[in-house]
């Protein structure tokens, strides 16, 4: 089997043509390229690797096992790319690639090394416009020093000399190409050669010609420049002939027939069937022109490569290339706005390979708070090492045509004598070759945000600075190439959101504080918007980073990059070297003002860009049942909304926390927080509110199953009623397929779970299993006087939200915002939950006297309390009569409540199954005898709830509220509910009296 042949740049123009031919001849062909693979790569190579030859590891990997290396890879192009402004970028890229590849080839015992050189090695200053036939030895025609065309030519010549030095270790082959062209080459991006450029313009002119007018036809220079051009097939034959030969000196591979650029232009027009009289020639003499004349002398090639010689005439090569370019152009025009594309493709572009993008790292540093003063320098050195390790590719060998730079603005407290004396920190950073400026700040200790502001202003004064990175000295950056990725992300934001470039915030992913944008990057545009300030003065040392992220989240322009990671050894979610000082209410007035400023700025520059609706989902969770929480975390907002999921874990001992963090902690739209202890649902929801920076919050229980489009529908309701205090969604239960489940519905304790189906607007309240509220700075949170497990806090929350609504509207129904709530404990019988709800509801009586009225008679729990009092007095007085009276009364109370509920549910007030909180097909209770038993059990559930209310009042010392009833509809339905409750209480009380009298008269 033949040894593999490595072709570098094997998906490029010449490289792919040679690789394809070698593969056809039966060789094993390995390709390495920084781009690709090509769609037809199986016809080009046996296998391939996408890699950067500037990386020594890539070079060592690809040469392994190969005996022949064909080196075509280069940063190159036509006159749009090979010009003075790109000299250093091109030289550095190409020289580094060749050195790394050559070193790896020698170490791997490669036998033959082919190098693709260029006619640019020849002198560029020969003042002649006649044909100059360049022989291989003419490189030295200028005397002692050569004069290649730009640093591109210098690199090619230097490589030839280096290869000659190693000729005792490698069999060298060097081909100096003279303007190779043909199908498959660059044809429109600024890297094309003259034949492709002129053919493209000719076909563009053909499309653009209109009756009575001429199409423009651009030509760089005055058209008198002379060049020779070699068709790609002849080039490949020449390369193969050189490889088969034993010639180790450089040899020209080109055409010895030169033409003027003007003649080439006419030939291109002829290929496109366009008459020269139908176009208006525009000669661009200010564009890069190259040398005045150049032609290949093929005497050596014809001798050493015999029988090779150019066989495809220029006219035929242009015709074939024209057919291919025409097909490429037609494909493009079918996909895009043809008028704009034709206008752009009618001109050639100049490629600027070194568009400088400078990142300013804002780096406050202190020697305080560490084990020793020296420790801060150890941390700084670790940071510097990680910085240099991760920026080398972006700064020195970027993968794109954009060059990157780094600048560090170091901020030190004026009274930090350890760091100020001798400027130790700057010395460490400069030892790594970093560009550093130090500012001494007179700020209170620990005011990190103030230091950031000072650093940002200093960096902003340098017009070369593009990006501002808020960083800390105890950070270790983990991923190489982060500058290019962040820059690319800003480009993507601008393209996808149609915002001005630089509008947005891109954050590192902090492995020590998952999901939190602790180290954001903003563009100079942000500093422009806020007149030189990176964050408002209100911030001390906390909240500045999430402020930036939340600000641009309003337009969907905030990103946290999954693959751009760092680790923060101090701070974050843990302890810091200073007292953490949060900024109260920054997510209200401070953020609102910033949003207004940004909106006004954007309105002028991109008036069509609309802000997104920020809707957060807050879920308190004691269970930490990951599969249940996943049903919530898989919800997705619409393209016009932005959503964060805030999960508050209320059981810090749960073993599922790590599982949840591992699966979802990395998501920027998921924030997982763990309480120090079991604080209860209300406290957890309050913490979720504090974590949120949105306009609206959806409160969900952790065990519900939401409809997939819940957030979409919530957004629709919000946009329909933007002034609402909130919205009440529907909560359904699975089918009540048991006596107990039916009893729960019959008791009425679930009546409000689907209140959104029963009242359209101005709802009194809704359960927190599915509740939406406007997030405003009104001070309204869930009151912690209510039980941890719930009961009354939802009514109180909605009432205060409505009362303090600055826009004057209350809660609207959102019946299609629906969730399914499971039966508690899988439907196992328990009355304790309903007792707890009643216990919590008891607080409402004293809190809302406007919704409270006297009942006409005591309820079951109050009567049982009387019975207990009577029996207890008999026990204390040692009289049996009171004891028996109390026992009689208790029995009668139970009996009457059973009988009265049977009367109500079977005759006077039949239960309306169509209104129960279940999906339409599930609204049916048990039937027959089971229905009778369910009604009787519903009495026990109702009495449990009433007992909870009574005990709650007694424990609060508010016995004087016994006999008062809270209106669950808060006046929404007038006196109807109050009258109905009074009627039922009075009927039951009369029955109790009558049965007691009858019993004692028997």
From TrEMBL:
Pfam families: Epimerase, Glycos_transf_2. It comes from the Eukaryota. Residues 617-725 form the Glycosyltransferase 2-like domain. Residues 5-254 form the NAD-dependent epimerase/dehydratase domain. Keywords: NAD. Belongs to the NAD(P)-dependent epimerase/dehydratase family. This is NAD-dependent epimerase/dehydratase. It comes from Armillaria luteobubalina.
């Amino acid at each position: 089997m033949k040894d593999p042949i490595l072709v570098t740049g094997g998906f490029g123009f010449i490289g792919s043509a040679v690789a394809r031919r070698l593969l056809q001849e039966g060789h094993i062909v390995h390709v390495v390229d920084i781009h690709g693979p090509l769609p037809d790569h199986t016809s080009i190579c046996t296998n391939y690797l996408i890699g950067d030859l500037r990386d020594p590891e890539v070079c060592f990997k690809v040469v392994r096992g190969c005996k022949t290396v064909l080196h075509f890879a280069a940063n190159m192009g036509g006159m749009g790319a090979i010009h003075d402004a790109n000299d250093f970028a091109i030289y550095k890229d190409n020289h580094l690639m060749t050195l790394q590849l050559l070193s790896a080839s020698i170490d791997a015992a490669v036998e033959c090394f082919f190098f693709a050189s260029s006619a640019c090695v020849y002198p560029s200053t020969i003042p002649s416009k006649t044909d100059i036939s360049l022989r291989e030895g003419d490189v030295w025609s200028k005397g002692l020093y050569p004069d290649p065309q730009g640093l591109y030519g210098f690199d090619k010549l230097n490589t030839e000399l280096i290869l000659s030095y190693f000729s005792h270790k490698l069999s060298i082959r060097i081909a100096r190409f003279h303007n190779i062209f043909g199908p498959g080459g660059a044809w429109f991006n600024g890297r094309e050669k003259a034949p492709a450029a002129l053919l493209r313009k000719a076909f563009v002119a053909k499309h653009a010609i209109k009756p009575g007018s001429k199409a423009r036809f651009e030509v760089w220079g005055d058209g008198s420049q002379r060049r020779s051009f070699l068709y790609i097939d002849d080039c490949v034959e020449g390369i193969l002939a050189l490889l088969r030969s034993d010639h180790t000196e450089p040899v020209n591979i080109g055409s010895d027939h030169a033409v003027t650029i003007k003649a080439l232009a006419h030939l291109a027009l002829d290929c496109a069937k366009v008459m020269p009289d139908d176009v208006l020639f525009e000669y661009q003499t200010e564009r890069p022109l190259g040398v005045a004349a150049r032609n290949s002398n093929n005497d050596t090639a014809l001798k050493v490569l015999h029988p090779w010689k150019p066989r495809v005439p220029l006219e035929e090569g242009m015709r074939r290339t024209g057919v291919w370019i025409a097909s490429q152009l037609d494909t493009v025009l079918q996909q895009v706005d043809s008028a704009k594309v034709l206008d752009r493709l009618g001109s050639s572009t100049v490629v600027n390979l070194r568009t400088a993008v400078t990142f300013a790292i804002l780096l406050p540093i202190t020697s305080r708070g560490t084990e020793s003063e020296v420790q801060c320098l150890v941390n700084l050195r670790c940071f510097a090492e990680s910085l240099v390790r991760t920026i080398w590719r972006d700064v020195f060998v970027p993968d794109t045509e954009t060059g990157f730079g780094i600048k560090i603005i170091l901020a030190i407290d004026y009274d930090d004598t350890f760091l100020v004396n001798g400027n130790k920190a700057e010395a460490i950073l400069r030892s790594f070759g970093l560009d550093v400026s130090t500012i001494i700040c007179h700020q209170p200790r620990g005011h990190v945000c103030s230091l950031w502001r000072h650093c940002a202003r200093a960096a902003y004064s340098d017009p070369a600075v593009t990006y501002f990175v808020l960083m800390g000295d105890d950070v270790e950056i983990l991923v190489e190439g982060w500058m290019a990725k962040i820059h690319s992300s800003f480009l993507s934001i601008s393209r996808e959101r149609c915002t001005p470039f630089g509008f947005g915030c891109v954050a590192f992913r902090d492995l020590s504080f998952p999901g939190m944008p602790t180290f954001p990057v903003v563009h100079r545009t942000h500093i422009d918007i806020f007149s030189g300030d990176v964050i408002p003065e209100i911030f001390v040392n906390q909240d500045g980073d999430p402020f930036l992220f939340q600000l641009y989240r309003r337009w969907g322009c905030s990103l946290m990059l999954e693959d751009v990671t760092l680790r923060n050894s101090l701070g974050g979610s843990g302890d810091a070297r200073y007292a953490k000082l949060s900024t109260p209410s920054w997510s209200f007035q401070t953020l609102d003002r910033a949003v207004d400023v940004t909106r006004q700025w954007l309105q002028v520059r991109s008036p069509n860009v609309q802000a997104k609706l920020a809707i957060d989902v807050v879920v308190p969770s004691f269970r930490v049942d990951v599969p249940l929480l996943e049903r919530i975390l898989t919800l997705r907002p619409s393209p016009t909304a932005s959503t964060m999921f805030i999960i508050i874990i209320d059981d810090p001992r749960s073993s599922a926390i790590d599982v949840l963090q591992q699966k979802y902690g990395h998501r920027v739209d998921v924030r997982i927080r763990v309480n120090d202890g079991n604080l209860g649902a209300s406290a957890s929801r309050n913490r979720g509110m504090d974590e949120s920076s949105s306009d609206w919050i959806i409160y969900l229980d952790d065990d519900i199953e939401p409809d997939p489009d819940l957030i979409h529908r919530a957004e629709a309701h919000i946009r329909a009623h933007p002034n609402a205090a909130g919205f009440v969604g529907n909560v359904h239960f699975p089918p009540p397929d048991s006596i107990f489940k039916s009893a729960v519905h019959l008791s009425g304790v679930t009546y409000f779970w689907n209140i959104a189906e029963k009242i359209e607007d101005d709802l009194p309240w809704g359960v927190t299993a599915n509740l939406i509220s406007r997030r405003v700075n009104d001070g309204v949170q869930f009151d912690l006087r209510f039980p941890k497990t719930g009961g009354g806090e939802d009514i109180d929350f909605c009432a205060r939200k409505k009362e303090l609504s600055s826009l004057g509207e209350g809660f609207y129904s959102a019946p299609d915002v629906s969730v399914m709530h499971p039966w508690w404990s899988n439907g196992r019988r328990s009355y304790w939950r309903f007792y707890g709800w009643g216990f919590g509801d008891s607080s409402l009586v004293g809190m809302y006297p406007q919704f409270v009225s006297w009942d006409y008679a005591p309820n079951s729990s109050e009567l049982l309390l009387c019975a207990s009092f009577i029996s207890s007095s008999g026990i204390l007085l040692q009289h049996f009569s009171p004891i028996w009276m109390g026992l009689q009364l208790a029995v009668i109370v139970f009996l009457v409540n059973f009988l009265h509920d049977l009367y109500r549910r079977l005759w006077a007030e039949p239960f309306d199954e169509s209104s129960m909180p279940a999906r339409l097909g599930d609204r049916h209770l048990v039937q027959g005898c089971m229905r009778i038993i369910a009604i009787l059990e519903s009495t026990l559930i109702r009495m449990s709830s009433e007992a909870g209310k009574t005990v709650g009042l007694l424990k609060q010392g508010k016995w004087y509220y016994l006999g008062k009833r809270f209106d669950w509809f808060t006046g929404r339905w007038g006196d109807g509910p109050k009258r109905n409750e009074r009627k039922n209480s009075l009927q039951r009380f009369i029955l109790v009296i009558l049965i007691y009298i009858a019993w004692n008269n028997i």
